[in-house]
């Protein structure tokens, strides 16, 4: 074989590793296992690959870039996370490459490979929910630093996680309503999982959900169950509203809920999208807030302070989440300690005019 014709791709295929892994070994950049290093160097020797080909194509050492992969950068939550991550990374001398997956697993896989080929030093990712996140697992095996944002996946339990404490978020909201005297509290959720499974998790000692591949919405459901359990209140399935993840679905669910005689005196929506739909549904039914129904939404959106009465919300520390992820990822890249593996940030309950004691308690 003519030496000049041999590429990194040839070496990667010969060694049975990805192109990005072969590039890191041949550039002597980043940490790799001795087994992988041996496989790549032996493949390069067999094919007659010349290392100076790579040297002309890239800088030696770190590239001082990281990637962030999110489902939808247009969602205010992820926009704020990105801002916090980018500001913190740049302060540390690191630039950020952004990839948007549109919640598509195939797009996510291609994005990850592209970022690896761009030789980023590490990746922060809010992964698409799937049973087998093979693309992430492959990069993890190749020892590319990865930090999970906001949620876990099966098989990724050992990766660092930076997330809001979703259980505490809804637990705090529901507890505040209980303290006001509410006993019939509705929950608007997109969760489809059987309640029995979440009931079991909510009653366990410790926090098993932290390492479980549960969606944030399921963790918030656990917070609802825990708040009721701690107050000695029974869980009534008539008070649990299931909705699709759209404003229109949430509005219909709330309108149908309010049309029934459930005796609910309060309602909590566990997501920003569901919150706006819930508010529309309450208004469409002509229900007075908080005289007839107290309401707590999720995320401090612009509209929550532009309506009357202003809406109480559970606020996530979105920019702080991004900043923490950047700090953890850069720390791993530069050899700093990674403990604790799980970084849970505390949500804040912002109390406004949409909550009051139930009418019978006034």
TrEMBL record:
Keywords: DNA-binding, Repressor, Transcription, Transcription regulation
Domain of life: Bacteria
InterPro entries (UniProt xref): HTH_LacI (IPR000843), Lambda_DNA-bd_dom_sf (IPR010982), Peripla_BP/Lac1_sug-bd_dom (IPR001761), Peripla_BP_I (IPR028082)
Occurrences of domain HTH lacI-type (ranges): 6-60
Database matches in SUPFAM superfamilies: lambda repressor-like DNA-binding domains, Periplasmic binding protein-like I
Sections of the chain in a coiled coil: none
Protein name: LacI family transcriptional regulator
Natural source organism: Microbacterium suwonense
């Amino acid at each position: 074989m003519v030496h000049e014709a041999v590429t990194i791709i040839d070496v990667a295929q010969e060694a049975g590793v990805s192109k990005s892994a072969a590039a890191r070994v041949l550039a002597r950049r980043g940490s790799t296992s001795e087994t992988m290093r041996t496989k790549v160097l032996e493949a390069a020797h067999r094919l007659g690959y010349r290392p100076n080909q790579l040297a002309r194509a890239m800088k030696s050492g770190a590239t001082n870039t990281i990637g962030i992969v999110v489902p939808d950068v247009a969602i205010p939550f992820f926009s704020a996370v990105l801002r916090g991550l980018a500001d913190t990374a740049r302060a540390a001398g690191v630039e950020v490459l952004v990839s948007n997956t549109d919640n598509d697993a195939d797009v996510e896989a291609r994005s990850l490979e592209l970022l690896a080929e761009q030789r980023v030093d590490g990746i922060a990712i809010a992964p698409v929910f799937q049973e087998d996140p093979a693309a992430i697992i492959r990069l993890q095996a190749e020892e590319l630093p990865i930090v999970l944002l906001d949620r876990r996946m099966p098989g990724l339990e050992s990766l660092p996680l930076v997330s809001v404490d979703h259980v505490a978020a809804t637990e705090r909201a529901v507890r505040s309503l209980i303290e006001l005297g509410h006993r019939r509290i509705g929950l608007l959720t997109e969760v489809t999982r059987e309640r029995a499974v979440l009931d079991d998790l909510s009653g366990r000692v410790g926090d098993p959900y932290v390492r479980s591949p549960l969606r944030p919405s399921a963790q918030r459901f656990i917070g609802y169950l825990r708040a009721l359990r701690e107050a000695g209140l029974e869980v009534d399935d008539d008070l649990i509203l299931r909705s699709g993840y759209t404003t229109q679905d949430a509005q219909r669910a709330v309108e149908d809920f309010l049309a029934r005689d459930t005796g609910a005196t309060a309602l909590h929506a566990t997501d920003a999208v569901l919150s706006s739909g819930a508010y529309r549904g309450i208004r469409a039914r002509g229900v007075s807030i908080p005289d007839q129904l107290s309401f707590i939404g999720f995320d401090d959106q612009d509209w929550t302070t532009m309506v009357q009465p202003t809406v109480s919300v559970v606020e996530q520390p979105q920019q702080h989440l991004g900043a923490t992820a950047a700090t953890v990822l850069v720390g791993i890249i530069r050899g700093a300690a990674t403990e604790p593996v799980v970084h849970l940030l505390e949500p804040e309950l912002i109390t406004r005019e949409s909550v009051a004691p139930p009418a019978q308690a006034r």
